[in-house]
Prior knowledge:
Layout: H1 24-38, E1 42-48, E2 60-68, E3 72-79, E4 91-95, E5 111-116, E6 125-132, E7 135-139, E8 146-150, E9 153-159, H2 160-163, E10 171-176, E11 184-185, E12 191-193, E13 212-215, E14 218-220, E15 225-233, E16 238-247, E17 250-256, E18 260-261, E19 268-273, E20 280-290, E21 299-305
Parallel strand pairs: 14-21
Antiparallel strand pairs: 1-2, 2-3, 3-9, 4-5, 4-10, 5-6, 6-7, 8-9, 10-11, 10-12, 13-15, 15-19, 16-17, 16-18, 16-20, 20-21
Amino acid sequence: MNGASHTGFIPLRRLRHLPIIASSAFACALVALCLTGLGGAATSTTFTDPAGDGGTWLDITSVDVTEEDDGGILFQVNFAGRVNWDEDGPRVALDLDRNPDTGSGYYGTEVEVAFEGEGHAREGRAVLYRANGWDFRGATPPEGWGWGLGPHEVDFFLSRSFLGLAPNAGFNLVVATTARNPDTAPNVGTFDYEPVPGAPPPQLGQDRRPPRVFAYDSRGTAGQPAKLDYWVLEGRGKARQVIRIFKGHRRVATIATPLRNVSPFRVAHARWRVPRGAHGHFRYSVRSIDAAGNKSRLAWASLDVR
């Protein structure tokens, strides 16, 4: 990276790449010039997130969405701590049709842009994804997109035309860090972004899409609690789980959780106290049921007890 400092802001708004700027004061002035000079007047909306709730080195404090007259949208993700160029940064996911029952399992989002750190034998870069069933797959970025890094922020720039959004169309968004215990903004669900102040969000229809659940192999010790890990994808973000533990074909326990928030960015777990004297191979199933009563398929995993 030409030996330049990583502490300055990297304005990559409409250009694919610029050298890192060592002076953050100069960089911020240049970004302001980009906002006013390239796109004309800009309007901005700020969504806040509590500081200290992240449990990770990247603690989101706010997300700014800035609209330009030419149809460009700037997403600025702000952090309490410093951004590390070497580490994977945040992801911004957009629900363009504002329907959590379509799109990916991440609250129904269809487009995601993320920063990947340079710690993988390559330069740090932004990457673009499109929904592919419940998940995402890589997509070719459009001309004119951009990204940037600052001491306490990561920015992404996309156009309304690329996103297929009308000039006054709103959308939902969620931001998440890439970590074992990620921070998300908001903590639950998505932010409702309205370019026209006071415009109401669209009314949702009946929920007919069942959740999707994954279970993960676990280990336990006789007489001790075993942690049974599972991951739930549910567009509206609320579900309850039924976990059944088996020894061979015999069911030995059932755990039922209440209806509660489920995050697509976190693996959840239930605890089961293994009976004293138990040992060997067990297995468990997980079924997720959303607030509308839609049921997922069963997910299975093993539990080996010593």
